[in-house]
Structures are given as C-alpha cells and as structure tokens.
Amino acid sequence: MIPSPCVKFCGLQISAQFREVVPERADDFGVIYEDNYRLLVSTAIERFHITTLDAQGLAHEVFLAYFLKADEILNSRAWLMAAICNASKHYLRSRARLVSYGEEFGKALDPKTDGDTLPDQLVVREAFSCVTAKCQIALRLRFIEGYSVPEIAAEFNVSKKYAAKIVRRCLKMAKRRYMKKGAADGRP
Known about the structure:
By secondary structure, this protein is mainly alpha-helical. It has 2 domains: 6-95, no CATH class; 103-183, Orthogonal Bundle (Arc Repressor Mutant, subunit A). Helix content is 73%, strand content 4%. Strands 1-2 form a two-stranded antiparallel sheet. The longest helix has 33 residues, at 16-48.
C-alpha cells in the first residue's frame, strides 16, 4: 500500500488534496492580507499601545488563524478586527506581570511607605495585576513614565478632564482591589 503524497509545511503533514485547494485560497488570502495588514498593526499600536514589532507579530498570528479558518468566516474584515483586538488584549494580560514598575507608583499607592524598593515594587506589581489593561496603561503613563494629564489625554484621544478622571479612578481601583486582595490573603 502506497501512502498518499504529503508535503511537510511548518512541521505539519499536508495531503495532496489540500495542496490542490491552497493556490486558489492563497490568491484570496494575499488580497485580504494586503488590504488589512496595516489596519491590524495600526489598531494594535494606537488602540492598545503595543510596540510596532509586537503589533506586527500579533497581526501575523491573526492572519495565520484566518488562513486556517477562512472557509468558516463570513465577514473577513470584522473577523480580523475582532481577532486583533482579542490578541492585543491577551498580549496585554500576559505581559502585565512582566513589566517592571517604578517607585513612583508604589508611593502613589501608599505615601507613608519609606521602605526598601523591592517591597515597593512587589506592592506595585500586585496592585497592577488587580486592575484592567487600560488602567495599567494610564497609571504607567502617569506615575512611571511621568506623563502629564494633557499628555495622557492625547494618548487616549480623550479630553483632559476625562483623562484626569481615568487616572483617579484607576488609582482608586488599584488601591481598593489591592487592599481587598491583601485582606483575603490575611495581610494587615
């Protein structure tokens, strides 16, 4: 018995039957890729404040998923936009614990602490893990990178008054959730 001819593609075995379908899908995919690549990358950069290199990687992951599911998708652009938003949110959630935070935010959480920087950084990391990605960005811009409220307003594309409200609300949320988490853990 002779096995069906297969081609290795990225470690996957692809049958001859699939190879016949790929060229016609590849032409459609090329058009969709060209039409939407810049949109997906710019969405990840502008809306989620992801670096250009990481945004390009996320866009390629989205296109790979699209290529594998293209037959099931009815509205390509809507699916791609939803996918890049979901991928960006997942990226931010996974990176939230890897980002280093400065002393400024620790002091903003508890101005009475004058201890070593390591405990302050641990407090900041735990507090940041308790808030949303948007709040993490707002607090990072304000307390770590030293942005003014008007600069934060420009970054988020909102009014200065609303940017100040976002920072205040996020700082309160971080304090409240951190204190609640500390009480649950048995900390004073």
